[in-house]
TrEMBL record:
Domain Thioesterase: 52-129
Keywords: Hydrolase
Name recorded for this polypeptide: Thioesterase
Organism: Roseicella frigidaeris
PANTHER family with a match to the protein in the record: 1,4-DIHYDROXY-2-NAPHTHOYL-COA THIOESTERASE 1
SUPFAM superfamilies: Thioesterase/thiol ester dehydrase-isomerase
Family membership noted in the UniProt record: Belongs to the thioesterase PaaI family.
Length: 143
């Protein structure tokens, strides 16, 4: 299982995120490796800015979604993460009709802070965005 302390099958991810931003944007997890995860997002009317290319904010939502999900999966049950900082460098445009793929790997898995590196690529493989997400580790509170 590598860095992962728990699993999230695709159907569990879909159920947990139904009706939330990730599901509304069509974000899907497609692969879990020993120390990485991949997710995809279509680029359609929901994701573009007036010039017809992927809105930078949509890339940030994808980056924060995959990074936060990875952050939770790297922790034991009873713990979660909260985003502290996210940044994104937009390197190449992505046009409507394409699909982007995010690859997320940990840079730091501390007991109080995690740092995740996310690369987002266009369908042709060109790097379109590089992002870094820093999260704070928190114990879940009883409901």
């Amino acid at each position: 299982m590598g860095v992962w302390k728990r699993a999230m099958p695709p159907e569990a991810y879909a159920a947990r995120h139904a009706g939330t931003m990730p599901s509304l944007l069509g974000i899907e997890f497609v692969e879990w490796g020993e120390d990485f995860a991949r997710a995809t997002m279509p680029v359609d009317e929901r994701h573009i800015q007036p010039a017809g290319i992927l809105h930078g904010g949509a890339s940030v939502v994808l980056a924060e979604t995959i990074g936060s999900t990875c952050g939770v999966m790297a922790l034991e049950e009873g713990w979660t993460v909260v985003g502290l900082e996210v940044n994104a460098n937009h390197l190449a445009p992505v046009h409507k009709g394409d699909v982007v793929e995010a690859l997320c790997r940990p840079l730091q898995l501390g007991s109080s802070v995690q740092v995740w590196h996310i690369e987002i690529r266009r369908g042709d493989g060109r790097l379109s965005c590089v992002s870094r997400l820093t999260t704070v580790v928190r114990k879940l509170r009883a409901p």
